Amino acid sequence: MKKVSLYELKRDLSSVISDAAREKVVVTRHTTPVVELGPVGEAHLPRGSRYEMADLRPALKGPTRGLYLELLAEDRGSNEEEP
After folding, report:
1. Residue 76: pLDDT over 90
2. How many angstroms separate the CA atoms of 22 and 26, rounded?
3. In a domain, 62, yes or no
4. By Cβ atoms counted within 10 A, which residue in 41, 48, 74, 79 is the most buried?
């Protein structure tokens, strides 16, 4: 675990972040620990039980004629083309 002062953090932010990606870094203010920086674990995205199970449907009936559904399917990573 590495300790850096608030002044060092301000001065060398990018190198401290690089260090924090590998190990925990404690930031101190007047030798008192203030915050702990560390590597991020795997991102957690809350998803419901029906995630990726529902078909895409147009939410609006209007001039889009469903063209945005292709973008939504692409965003989901779906290879199927929607009508």
Report:
1. no
2. 13
3. no
4. 74
Residue 26: left if φ>0, alpha if ψ -120 to 50, beta else—which one?
beta
60: tokens are 């609006």
Q: Answer yes or no: are the C-beta atoms of 4 and 27 closer than 8 Å.
A: yes
The number of distinct structural domains making up the chain is: 1
The answer to whether position 79 is within a domain reads: no
- pTM across the whole model: 0.50
Helix residue spans in 12-76 (DSSP H): 13-22, 68-76
Give the model confidence (pLDDT) of 17-72 as tens digits: 999 999 999 999 999 999 999 988 776 677 777 777 777 666 666 666 666 777 77
Residue 29 lies in a domain: yes
Q: Where are the beta strands (DSSP E) in the chain?
A: 2-5, 25-29, 32-37
As a whole number of angstroms, the distance between CA 53 and CA 55 comes to 7
Residue 68 within any structural domain of the chain:
no
